[in-house]
Design brief:
Layout lengths: L3 E11 L3 E8 L6 E6 L4 E6 L10 E2 L6 E7 L7 E7 L3 E10 L2 E10 L10 H11 L5 H7 L41 H17 L7
Antiparallel strand pairs: 1-2, 2-9, 3-4, 4-7, 5-6, 6-7, 8-9
Helix pairs in contact: 1-3
């Protein structure tokens, strides 16, 4: 097992579109593995060493890709784990290098949304969908003013049965669905459509909640 020499021997060079993170080892060629976690974007790195990692967490107050580094529960006693907090999802690669009888691992992180000026895209997705689905009917204006909608159930033909209308946005839990080229998430779009449809149906006098 190899002892990982941490900060100041963690070197981070990054901006919003890409980052390089270098970890230095005092021993031989390190064993390591890494994988991403999504929703709250992170890169998890496991090192083959039993000594505990010290001098973490590290936090970066900037608008770049790497937001911070912290320790986490390792998979077993033979490994240590660090978690790299990211501003956006990344494409990650790593290579181990030997320099002057010492080893280092260089992680190259590329923003999957490179070219997007703002990492938060849900607001723009909401605005775009609102424009697409804008309904400016007198009935909806009446709903916005909390005016009651008259019921015409008494005038329905005899033998008419009631039918339940269920609006299913199709996304539960934390599943974001498809993610567009500009970072728009399918889950946000379908939820906006579902809410718009619900409000529109509320204005129909033949329907009731």
């Amino acid at each position: 097992m190899h002892r990982l020499q941490l900060y100041p021997n963690i070197r981070v060079n990054d901006n919003l579109s890409e980052a390089k993170l270098t970890l230095h080892f005092a021993g031989g060629n390190p064993e390591y593995r890494f994988f991403p976690l999504h929703e709250l974007e992170r890169l998890v790195v496991d090192f083959g060493q039993s000594d505990q990692v010290s001098r973490l967490p590290m936090k970066f107050i900037n608008n770049n890709l790497v937001k911070g580094i912290r320790t986490s529960q390792p998979p077993n006693s033979q490994y240590q784990r660090i978690v790299i907090k990211l501003a956006n999802a990344v494409k990650a690669s790593a290579v181990a290098e030997q320099i002057n009888h010492r080893y280092q691992i260089v992680f190259s992180l590329k923003n999957n949304r490179a070219g997007v000026s703002q990492p938060q895209t849900s607001q723009s997705a909401t605005e775009a969908t609102n424009k697409l689905l804008s309904i400016d009917s007198p009935a909806e204006k009446k709903l916005a003013n909390n005016s009651p909608t008259p019921s015409i159930y008494k005038n329905l033909p005899k033998g008419t049965r009631q039918v339940a209308v269920v609006i299913d946005a199709g996304h539960g839990s934390k599943d974001p669905g498809a993610i567009g080229q500009n970072g728009h998430r399918e889950k946000n779009i379908t939820m906006i459509i579902a809410r718009k449809l619900k409000n529109h149906l509320k204005t129909d006098p033949i329907l009731r909640q």
